[in-house]
Structure formats: C-alpha cells, structure tokens
Write a structure and sequence with these properties.
Number of domains: 2
Largest sheet: 6 strands, mixed
CATH topology of the largest domain: Alpha/beta knot
Shape: elongated
CATH class of the largest domain: Alpha Beta
Number of helices: 11
Structural class: alpha/beta
Bound molecules: S-adenosyl-L-homocysteine
C-alpha cells in the first residue's frame, strides 16, 4: 500500500511519532490487518485509536488504517455527496452513486469474499456489535467501514454491495465515526501482540459470558475502605473462587440477559 503513489481520496494513517520511511520498510505492514474507513471526516482518524495500546500497535505496523474521503467522490462543482430523501421528509441521504464509487475504491486490492474482508455500514438499524463480532472481525484480513452521516445511506448501495449493518447500541449518534473507532478498537485489541498481557483478554468482561469481577489496587486502605481480605490473602484458589462469585452476582443483578445465556451454556456443557 505504502509504496504505491497515494490514490485519490485515500490516505494511510499512522501516528506521526516515527519517521514515515522507517515504517514503510517494515514487512509486517503489507500483511497487517487493515481498516478502510469511508468517511466525510478523515481528519477524525486515527482519533483516540492513535493513543495507548492501539496507537502503539498502529505505529508498530500490527494493523493499518486507511481513510477514504467520501467528498472526493462527490458530484458536481461542489462535490455533493447527499441529496433529499425520495418521498420527502427531513434531512439528507448519502447518494448511492457517490458511496458506490467510494466502495469501489475501498475494494481495490482486497479479497471480494465478505468472510475474509467484511464490508460494514455503521447504523443504528444494524446488528448489535458485541465481543463475538469483534473476535470474528479480528480474524479477518481487514474490514471496510462506512461512516454514515445525516439520515443515513441510500438503501440500494447496501443491497448492491451486500453490506452488513452494525450498530453500537440502541441510541442515535450524529455520524458513524465514533462507532467506527469503537469497532476498530475492540477488534484490534484482540490481535496478538496488541495487549501486553494476552491473558487479560481471556478474563475480562464478555469473554466468558460474565461481567468482570471488581478490581482493586494500592493503597490497601482508602478513605476507610479496605481491599477485600481475600485478595490480600495470597491464596490463589480462594481468590479465583471469590472473583467468579462476584462476576456471577454482578452479571445476575445487572444483565439478566447475559445471565440467562450463561446459565443455558453451562447447563449444556454439564448435560
Ligand atoms: N436516520 C437514521 C439515523 C442516522 S444517524 C436512523 O434513524 O436509523 C447518522 C449516522 O450515524 C448513521 O448513518 C450511522 O452511520 C451513525 N450512527 C448513528 N447511530 C449509530 C449507532 N447506534 N451505531 C452505529 N452507528 C450509528
């Protein structure tokens, strides 16, 4: 990617902490998992992804980020990307021809099988994003993400490109950029080498179907509140039992839906 001339509208992004040519010599870059993001606001990237664990991994070439500026595919003198909704109503809709051209650009040089390279539109109508989806995406070669704006995108483009709609949750954002960064973050942190301590991925919330147990660190006493004795006991078996019991109690109280699924899965394995 990086040794080709930069194509119109597409930009490769890395945190600027290291000289570009150094990074371009890294063989890891060519095969690294890649997020291609179609957006009207490429300057919003890498955003928070450029910091901490995901930022360091980006810098090290463990994953890649490319933005495709939707405006570059706009029509007419003003490069319009949207128009009024057919049938009337408030707001504007992203045009199928404009988004289609951006999707064609995004498809260049990547597998056409969606199982290997999913094409996703962030949308409140989509399937709810969760840890299982993050795991699936982390096992692909890359993803293309469409960040909607205004009222959303022309339905025909979703059909034509067999786009998967993915939602962050039951609320409405003003655009897909924050959702795209959330999806990328959750996905990238599952990749080997991104988190320092790989074991922490297996133990955290939503991995075993339970919410995580409470965490504590120094000082041992703060404003009269002590860390639970069992955690200071050094007894690993008891600590594990306590954590499991806490995780179960929390999940049961806060997320009856997760609790029911967890119980059902456990009954299955025990039967
Ligand atoms: N009219 C649309 C909402 C558009 S919000 C509807 O009622 O379904 C504008 C854009 O923000 C969407 O196209 C989508 O890309 C993004 N967005 C809003 N809420 C989102 C959510 N919960 N999850 C993911 N993306 C969202």
């Amino acid at each position: 990617m990086s040794d080709r001339p930069k194509s119109h509208g597409r930009l490769s992004i890395r945190p600027a902490a290291r000289p570009r040519d150094l990074l371009e010599d890294q063989p890891a870059l060519a095969n690294a998992w890649c997020a291609r993001v179609i957006t009207l606001f490429p300057e919003a990237f890498p955003g928070v992804l450029g910091h901490s664990l995901t930022g360091r991994a980006l810098e090290e070439g463990l994953w890649r980020l490319e933005t495709i500026h939707l405006r570059a595919f706009g029509v007419g003198r003003h490069r319009n990307v949207d128009d009024t909704p057919a049938g009337g109503g408030a707001g504007m809709v992203l045009r199928a021809d404009v988004l289609g051209a951006a999707l064609d650009r995004a498809a260049e040089g990547v597998p056409s099988e969606h199982a290997r390279w999913p094409v996703i539109c962030l949308s409140p109508r989509g399937r709810r994003f969760d840890q299982a989806m993050a795991r699936r995406l982390s096992q692909t070669e890359g993803i293309t993400l469409i960040c909607g704006r205004f009222e959303g995108v022309d339905e025909r483009v979703l059909e034509e490109y067999a786009v998967e709609e993915v939602s962050l949750g039951d609320f409405v954002l003003s655009g897909g950029e924050i959702a795209a960064q959330a999806v990328i973050d959750a996905t990238v942190r599952l990749m080997p080498g991104v988190l320092g301590n790989a074991a922490s991925v297996e133990e955290e919330s939503h991995s075993a179907g339970l919410l995580e147990h409470p965490q504590y660190t120094r000082p041992a006493e703060w404003r009269g509140r002590r860390i639970p004795d069992v955690l200071m006991s050094g007894h690993h078996g008891e600590i594990a039992r306590w954590r499991r019991a806490q995780a179960e109690a929390l999940t049961r109280a806060r997320r009856p839906d997760l609790w029911a699924a967890y119980r059902a899965a456990r009954d299955d394995t025990e039967a």
